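Researcher: Checking consistency across runs. Here is N-acetyl-alpha-D-glucosaminyl L-malate synthase BshA again:
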Amino acid sequence: MKIGIVCYPTFGGSGVVATELGLELSKRGHEIHFITYNQPVRLELLNKNVHYHEVNVPEYPLFHYQPYELALSSKLLDMVKLHKIEVLHVHYAIPHAYAAYMAQKMLLEENIYVPIVTTLHGTDITLVGSHPFYKPAVTFSINKSDAVTAVSQSLKEDTLRLFDIKNDIDVVTNFIDISKYDHGFSDCQRSMMADENEKIITHISNLRPVKRMEDVVKIFYNIQKQIPAKLMVVGDGPDREKAESLCAKLGITKKVIFFGKSNEIDKILCFSDLFLLPSETESFGLAALEAMASGVPVISSKTGGIPEVNKQGVTGFLSEVGDVEDMSKNAIHILSDETRLKEFKKNAKAEAIKFDIHNIVPQYEAIYERTLKKS
Ligand code: GMT
């Protein structure tokens, strides 16, 4: 099949999922066209089956807001015609599903029908999409898509609760390529990061308020009072300064490393002992799944789709949002006993294998075929 993929080309989970999906589909013989405003961060290798088309938005001073949706719709129309793209798979409803619908309508004028598959990722529904300013357009574009998928059962339920949805929603979970985690790094350069007796705690996110960075720091503060440890914070975002100030206030600056954005997540996870994800809400928690794939247990909040990934008492622990004390207690419980820690690490890896890309991608292929039959 010739598949056009639209996504945010950034470090966010939705862009990562879209990119990994496209690359795997290309390995399975499909021709993939990424249509985005930048080359997706995890898209390194372009080849005969993987193409990237940049959406340019010319700046014009009259516009307070540059019309990205118009540029995207026009680019989609051109690319569908030029490359004979058969299906458009848009990741993140806003504004991608809306722009794709416009492209579909324009193409119809030329007797070309291209089905749209929309994948809902989370904040497009729970945080941004349900805002009254966007809701009518988001509802409309979900209902007009030829197929809609959500990355967890929880996100599907949220979507049905928050919007008036007439379409079916398939749950197709996020995934990891487990083979990429059998990297065989020997000591993972752990000694460069921490002393031998120190445990390494990791948090990876876009450091937005929804990630509750203060909780991350406070949980770590409690852990290091009882167990020698270092905290690795990977990613960048608006709450970084607040988190750094809190570390200074608590006197733990030397024990916390802020890496900023990184393409070496696998190396960092390789030397991690525990992953923290105390988010306010999380449709899935791809970062937690990536940690688990590296054999890292997870301390998380019990919210959104996280319980579909992190299993209570097996791969880690889940607490109510904001319950820093419980999360700290659970973290110390796992870290304070080597045998227990090993068991949790083993379980985390075993659970992650269930989300291997090879189990998930055929589900998307079946959906594409279904929409093609309809058209
Ligand atoms: O977490 C974010 O703020 C980024 C956001 C995104 O669009 O990339 O992540 C969402 O999509 C990911 C991939 O499907 C999910 O793993 C994240 O849980 C979800 N984030 C939220 O729901 C807050």
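Researcher: Does this match what you'd expect to see?
Model: One thing to look at in this run: DSSP finds 13 helices and 13 strands in the chain.
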